[in-house]
Amino acid sequence: MAARSPTEIEDAAQNAPEDALSLAAAPPASPSVTTALKHAPMGIAIFDDQMRYLAASRQYLTDQGMSPDTPLLGRRHYDVFPEIPQFWRDKHAQVLAEGVELREDEGDRYVDGEGRVHWVRWSMAPWRTDDGRIGGLVLYTEMVTAAVEARRRLQAAEARYRALFDQAAMGVARVSGSGRFLEVNDRFCAITRRDRETLLASTFMDIAPGEDNVATVVTQGLALLTGEIDTYALERRVEGRDGPVWVHVTASRVDPGDGRPYLVVIISDITARKQVEAEQQHYQGQLRLLINELNHRVKNTLATVQSMASQTLKTEADPLTAFEKFESRLLGLSQVHDVLTRESWHGAGLRDVAERALAPFVPPEAPERLAVEGPPVWLAPGGALTMALIFHELATNALKYGALSSRERGGGEGRVVLAWTYDAATRDLALTWTETGGPPVAAPTRRGFGSRLIERSLRGELKGAATMDYRPEGLVCTMRATLSDPVEAAGPLGAG
């Protein structure tokens, strides 16, 4: 390609003006080439080796912010654009000196004379004369500012999304329409106690087993994917490696526009809250039970006190003696109330009840006169009160007439053994009160209040019975009862 002089270029432009197109090169361009250059959809400029314009397309003029009739032929590029950065000057010089082709397909930043930022995709290539000498260069430009800015906005949005996704305080996952995990963040892995590889190879139904859970996930997921609902939230138990985990789940539909919508699932760990709720429900249930039990026991206690007062006053003509007996029986009743209060009215150990009820009847200097033997047995509150009253009546009788009586009454050396056995399978409790070493015993001519209280109490509260055997060497009272509740091996405080 032989280069023309500037005079020949100007003559060619005057003889064949082409709107916003200035064309100059050797050999002369055909009309079809001229037309193609004029309407090229990209910026094209042809320079000589001094960077003087030989030709420029209409799109080039438009991209440079110039009018279509701007005269460029023969003018140096750097005179038209004096503000052009050194970066571009160096690229032009490299192409003209080395004959290399340069290009930037992604786009380079360019600031025009008014300070506006543009992004341009470009390429440069040398053109040569017939003798092979570099005659100049051809510059191709395409303004891609809108595309680059859109791409940068998208990249910024993706970076923000990635930061939010990865650093979110809650578990976040993208789930396909089939329920398979597409992406999970670190917090999602931590909450479900599973590693990322395991989750990405599984579905949401895999970590939320159970017919109810799977049915809900599938039904709600389909409703989301079909657009029936926009979002849904629920609480579910998922299976982690270390056991079940309760999570609050929020799922929303995302439609990227490619016909393949997916779900964004956000979970938060609510296991601690669920544990607290379960404990609150348990304690509320215990409180209701306690209140109901207290109401029941107060009524029963008042009825017992009324019965004791009535029977004591009927059988004792002397008011002072009647008062002493009534006071003693109330004291025995209060002893077991202390035990039940200590155990929050959940019950009491049989040994604790016996020792509390019988302690006032044994001299401190002779503790060997009373022996309590038997395995640990836990009594419900009603059973504990009943046994306390029975033990008090037996001890009162032994203190007045039997093995615990004083020397003045023919005693002093007597001894009482309270023993029991328990069958956990049938919940049958068998007790024996055995007196020895006291005054000679004879069967009473009439049944007293104590005997009636023992028999009635066992028959009512503990569905049992009592037998009195008045042997000469001492009373033997055999009692049996059936405990209404399963007996624990030990009470809350380990009482027997």
Structure description:
By secondary structure, the protein is an alpha+beta fold. The protein folds into three domains: 6-148, PAS domain (Beta-Lactamase, 2-Layer Sandwich), CATH 3.30.450.20; 168-269, PAS domain (Beta-Lactamase); 327-482, 2-Layer Sandwich (Heat Shock Protein 90). The protein has 15 helices and 17 strands. A five-stranded antiparallel beta sheet has the order 2-1-5-4-3. Strand 8 and strand 9 form a beta hairpin.
CATH H level, superfamily name of the largest domain = Histidine kinase-like ATPase, C-terminal domain
By CATH reckoning, the class of the largest domain would read: Alpha Beta
User: Helix/strand-derived class?
Assistant: alpha+beta
Q: So, CATH architecture of the largest domain?
A: 2-Layer Sandwich
The end-to-end span amounts to 115 Å
Number of domains: 3
Uncertain segments of ≥5 residues (pLDDT<50)? 1-28, 486-496
